[in-house]
């Protein structure tokens, strides 16, 4: 007879559906990563982008997959075998699946068998749920995912990973990380302090002007919006032989600016093409709320 562990512990499972892969992490109450796994996502691009008019999830739950859509975008093979490749069931986000964790999975995770497991949300949709309470009532009608409204996705690829890449691959990074740890602050806090001191020392009118001679195109992992080119590459213009912490701070700032300009490009394009509010004409994207890793 197989018994469950007698000592139970609280753990948290996080799932991220990103550009090139889906990743899952298991964390304890202190935020320590206990284990992780990932699975690649196939990327297709043939000519112009395909705009997807997503059906309401509640309708999909009742009717299943839209076979005509898969055929239209050249993925008709996903319909074969009664959708054997992608699964036959479509569930509304948050709905309980099956009978919860199986006995084997529960033992592996240190949880109880039958622990509820709900249908997940992808990162962009989950972010909307996270800000629902932060949006003024007057703006609530324009929130994505509200019935009868559109959700416009304008993603940028691996921006958090890009910041880590720029910082961690610089020769000054280890020393900077040690200094930050000794003060119990993040390396980003220390970089921001460095930039503030540089602004004062150089008499710069504002921090953004420090990177007048260095620019970064942040497409190190392809471009999702608006170019939609997974083969796009990043670029750094204005490099010198400098290896100081100040030089790293400038690279960090230029990366943040490159990401911000990418966001501006997306918003500018949406506004220029007249986002239509259901039944009430045109509206423009106004407030921006930052969520996820960049909000920390």
Automatic annotation (TrEMBL):
SUPFAM superfamilies: Actin-like ATPase domain. Keywords: Kinase, Transferase. Residues 144-294 form the Carbohydrate kinase FGGY C-terminal domain. GO terms for biological process: pentose metabolic process. Pfam families: FGGY_C. GO terms for cellular component: cytoplasm. The keyword Kinase applies. GO terms for molecular function: D-ribulokinase activity. PANTHER family: FGGY CARBOHYDRATE KINASE DOMAIN-CONTAINING PROTEIN (PTHR43435:SF4), RIBULOKINASE (PTHR43435). This is Carbohydrate kinase FGGY C-terminal domain-containing protein. It comes from Anisodus acutangulus.
